[in-house]
């Protein structure tokens, strides 16, 4: 490009209007009467005019000021809003564009061979345009410089809409270290977006030619849909297959109380004290048998203990006599524990300890350490009444693992926890059965970044996610949201300057999203990267047309289903 083609000079073919109002960083421009179609062609590319989230620019000397389009409307409506009555009886077809300034740049000539032009772009605006200045569409060559890669390590999320294929990158450390939320209604492409993010994380090692790349990603998967998307790159932990072990002794006092007494019931102080004392007795006895220092053991210490020893601890507290009222709390604890032991679905949690080995490090190795980079925890087979406890134990265990690591160990071993269907585990309804999960994930949201544990919250109902947890996210990938309450909730958690983006959420296409926050180079509308069928999670959508063309269910098949149902084995 030579000097007479200086990119700092305006391109008249891209001029679309004139500024009529400047209000801080907000500008209003009137479209030229010659703009009869809402698009322009320049350099073989088609540029839409007035598209929400598109970028326009204003030349101010050698400076170029950039703005996001937020609104396109009739000038008559704009005038009425300000109390200006229309003149005459003719039809007024004038239109205005409203936009928000966000950055400025300048094209610089680089003399190093080969000589070339480069756009120096900075966020923030120091120079403000004036009324009567011309507004231009932004050429795609400039959009490539504006969006760029960001300043730190980044991953590929997709493409910016309306930029001719300009890639969208997310800052890796901001995306993971400061927590991210992926929100979208059913059918918006939410699970595919999660898979795209995780595949991009896995591919960073090869794309960046890194000699070592060992991510640790743990996915709480309530519907058993993610295993297919990471064939050969994941370890599946499932209660159905016996590969997931969350032994009862890993639970702390509050979680044990929730398991045995049940948070949905009235927990009498006497029952709480019975469980606490029995738990203490059982842990101390186990510590002695393992040769551990029992003087440092508490009710929350992750020391394996025998269930029978716990029962003995309950019986040791039982008062003499046959007064039914006095005996009831002790009978209730013993009976509930025995009911749980007889439940085949609880085998993954209530398999008795063998009284010999310390299995603690073995249990931890399920989640971290050598092995596949993605550990998918299939919670679809977990009974609903303990689903909250299970997610709580996993989240708390990961957090405590990071707490007790040294600073150097944390730096070498950061962890990402993906909480799919977050409204199920951290609901804002205050359901008692999820209290432990709320507390554990809330703590990760508040303090996890200090210890090297990131949180990726995924939900189709943001209005039902615990507000404290969601507000701790600093980046958002928001797909189509059709529910009014959910859109209002999203508006409330976004920064004030970004709240206007929620106006377009109901009209986004599948796999199209608004990407905002600290991980985004700029707030933008993107199309999430496409994946092959083998890289996508298993879809739960049933094709009725194909299904009803198949053979009907036979009696033998019904019998097999009945057996699986009866014995709770899939």
Outline:
With 570 residues, the chain is an alpha/beta fold.
Please describe the structure with a list of short key phrases separated by commas or semicolons.
single chain, 570 residues, alpha/beta, Rossmann fold, 11-stranded mixed β-sheet, 6-stranded antiparallel beta barrel, 18 helices, 33% helix, elongated
Q: What report would you give on this structure?
A:
By secondary structure, this protein is of the alpha/beta class. It has 3 domains: 3-147, no CATH class; 167-244 and 366-540, P-loop containing nucleotide triphosphate hydrolases (Rossmann fold, 3-Layer(aba) Sandwich); 250-349, no CATH class. It has helices spanning 75-81, 140-147, 172-177, 190-207, 253-260, 269-290, 307-317, 324-342, 347-350, 360-364, 384-403, 407-412, 422-425, 435-451, 467-471, 484-493, 544-547, 555-567, and strands at 15-23, 26-31, 39-42, 45-48, 55-60, 63-74, 95-110, 116-123, 134-137, 154-160, 167-171, 180-183, 217-221, 234-238, 374-378, 415-419, 453-459, 475-478, 512-517, 524-528. It has an 11-stranded mixed beta sheet. It has a 6-stranded antiparallel barrel with strand order 1-2-7-6-5-9. Strand 3 (39-42) and strand 4 (45-48) form a beta hairpin. Helix 6 (269-290) crosses helix 7 (307-317). The protein is elongated. The model has no long low-confidence stretch (mean pLDDT 85).
């Amino acid at each position: 490009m030579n000097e007479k083609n200086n990119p700092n000079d305006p391109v008249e073919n891209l001029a679309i209007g004139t500024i009529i109002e400047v209000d801080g960083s907000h500008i209003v421009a009137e479209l030229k009467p010659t703009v009869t179609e809402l698009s322009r062609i320049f350099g073989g590319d088609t540029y839409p005019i007035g598209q929400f989230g598109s970028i326009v620019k204003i030349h101010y000397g050698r400076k170029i000021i950039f703005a996001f389009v937020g609104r396109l409307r009739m000038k008559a409506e704009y005038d009425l809003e300000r109390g200006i009555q229309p003149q005459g009886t003719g039809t007024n077809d004038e239109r205005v564009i409203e936009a928000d300034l966000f950055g400025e740049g300048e094209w610089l000539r680089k003399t190093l061979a080969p000589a070339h032009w480069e756009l120096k772009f900075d966020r923030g605006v120091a120079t403000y345009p004036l009324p009567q200045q011309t507004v231009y569409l932004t050429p795609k060559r400039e959009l490539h410089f504006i969006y760029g890669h960001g300043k730190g390590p980044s991953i590929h999320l997709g493409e910016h809409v309306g930029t001719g294929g300009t890639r969208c990158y997310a800052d890796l450390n901001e995306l993971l270290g400061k927590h991210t939320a992926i929100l979208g209604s059913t059918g918006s492409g939410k699970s595919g977006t999660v898979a795209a993010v995780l595949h991009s994380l896995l591919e960073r090692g090869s794309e960046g030619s890194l000699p070592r790349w060992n991510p640790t990603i743990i996915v709480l998967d309530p519907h058993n849909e993610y295993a297919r998307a990471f064939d050969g790159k994941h370890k599946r932990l499932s209660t159905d297959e016996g590969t997931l072990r969350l032994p009862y002794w890993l639970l702390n006092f509050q979680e044990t109380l929730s398991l045995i007494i049940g948070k949905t019931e009235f927990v009498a102080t006497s029952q709480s004290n019975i469980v606490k004392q029995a738990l203490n007795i059982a842990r101390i006895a186990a510590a002695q048998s393992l040769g551990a220092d029992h003087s440092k053991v508490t009710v929350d210490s992750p020391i394996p203990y025998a269930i029978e020893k716990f029962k003995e601890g309950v019986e040791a507290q039982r008062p003499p006599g046959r007064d039914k009222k006095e005996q009831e709390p002790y009978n209730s604890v013993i009976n509930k524990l025995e009911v749980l032991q007889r439940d085949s679905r609880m085998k993954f949690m209530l398999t008795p300890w063998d009284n010999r080995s310390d299995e603690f490090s073995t249990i931890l190795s399920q989640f971290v350490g050598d092995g596949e980079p993605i550990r998918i925890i299939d919670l679809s087979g977990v009974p609903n009444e303990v689903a909250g406890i299970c997610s709580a134990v996993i989240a708390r265990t990961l957090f405590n693992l990071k707490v007790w690591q040294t600073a150097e160990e944390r730096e070498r071993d950061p962890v990402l926890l993906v909480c799919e269907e977050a409204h199920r585990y951290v609901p804002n309804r205050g359901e008692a059965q999820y209290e432990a999960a709320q507390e554990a994930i809330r703590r990760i949201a508040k303090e996890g970044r200090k210890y090297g544990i990131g949180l990726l919250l995924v939900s189709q109902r943001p209005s039902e996610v615990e507000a404290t947890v969601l507000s701790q996210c600093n980046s958002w990938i928001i797909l189509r949201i059709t529910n009014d309450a959910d859109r209002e909730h999203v508006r409330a958690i976004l920064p004030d300057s970004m709240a206007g983006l929620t106006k377009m959420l109901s009209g986004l296409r599948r796999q199209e999203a608004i990407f905002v926050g600290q991980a985004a180079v700029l707030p933008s509308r993107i199309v999430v990267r496409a994946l092959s069928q083998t890289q996508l999670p298993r879809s739960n959508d049933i094709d009725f047309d194909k299904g009803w063309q198949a053979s009907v269910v036979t009696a033998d098949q019904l019998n097999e289903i009945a057996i699986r149902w009866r014995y709770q084995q899939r």
